[in-house]
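User: I'm putting together notes for a lab meeting next week and I want to include a structural view of one of the chains we've been expressing. I don't have a solved structure, so I'd like a prediction I can at least talk through. The sequence is below, exactly as it appears in our construct file.
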Amino acid sequence: MAGDEHDGGSFGFDVTVAHPARVYNYLLGGKDNFEADREAARQMIAGGAKVLVGVRADRAFLGRAVRP
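Assistant: Thanks for the context. Below is the predicted structure for the 68-residue chain, given as structure tokens.
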């Protein structure tokens, strides 16, 4: 794409840096995440955040919201 800069054919993301979408994916039991994402999620959980309750509630709401 015009204006995009790529270094050696990379896709523009760094798997060594956690990304919120991949952390969310991991917390929901997904497979599309990397070690940095899993470590960030483990730190959130260890810090006492009730993150698992939140992401599960969010996913349940989404399911209810889009159901006809």
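A couple of points you could mention at the meeting. The chain is about 55% helix and 0% strand. Residues 1-8 have pLDDT under 50 and may be disordered.

User: Perfect, that's what I needed.
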